[in-house]
Write a structure and sequence with these properties.
By secondary structure, the chain is mainly alpha-helical. The protein is built from three helices and two strands, in the order ααββα.
Amino acid sequence: MSAASGQRFCRKCMIPDFVEDKEGFIRTYLNGIDGHLRTNEREWEERLKFCENCENQINGVCRLCGCFVILRAAVRKNRCPDGKKKWGRIT
């Protein structure tokens, strides 16, 4: 969808169309997050459980912010973009 339709896209998380190995790109992105910036495994999985059951998640993308939820949930300072704040920042 285009921005004209009201959907936003996170330019930091979007995988470029020319990337053939999207799973490899995601692994590389996740492995590249500094340890002090990354959520621990338990917290990451808890965040993803919220996103899995969220009506705003479509094919792994949050329709509120345009991020891939698997990537957004991996960064400690990120929070759920829903007004209900299903998960928050880790300080």
